[in-house]
Amino acid sequence: MSKADRVGDYLSHMLTALERIERYTADMDEAQFMANALVQDAALRNIEIIGEAANNIQRAAPEFAAQHSEVPWLVVYTMRNRITHGYDSVDLAIVWRTIRSDLPALKIQIERVRASVRA
Asked: Catalytic site residue 80?
């Protein structure tokens, strides 16, 4: 199985990670998130997974990524890189805003794209 054949798997990985972040932070406000290193670590790890899967899709199936340009593939991967390589200077306020403002819309986009792969 080629990487291009795994697009559905990568999308599923993204959805799983998005759902985990959603579950881990569901009953939290920003202050609670800032005070909970365990949830921070879990959220950051799952953002890394989302970004890596997005990059795998871009590399393995660039035409698929282009057909679904509503998904910010590069932005997601860039955030993953920032967290992974800038681990010592991650701005948790930005991570929190991303969790609350950007990830819900990304989840909807990925659900739609995943549904089109199954169809």
From this structure: yes
State the catalytic residue, choosing from 45, 59, 85, 118.
Answer: 85
| Active-site residue flag, 45 | no
DSSP 46-95: HHHHHHHHHHHHHHH-HHHHHHTTTS-HHHHHHHHHHHHHTGGG--HHHH
Query: CA torsion, points 36, 100, 42, 46, in degrees to nearest 10?
Result: -170
pLDDT, one tens digit per residue, over 43-72 is 999 999 999 999 999 999 999 999 999 999
Judge if pTM exceeds 0.85: yes
List 80, 82, 97, 118, catalytic entry: 80
Tell me the C-alpha distance between 108 and 78, whole Å. 20
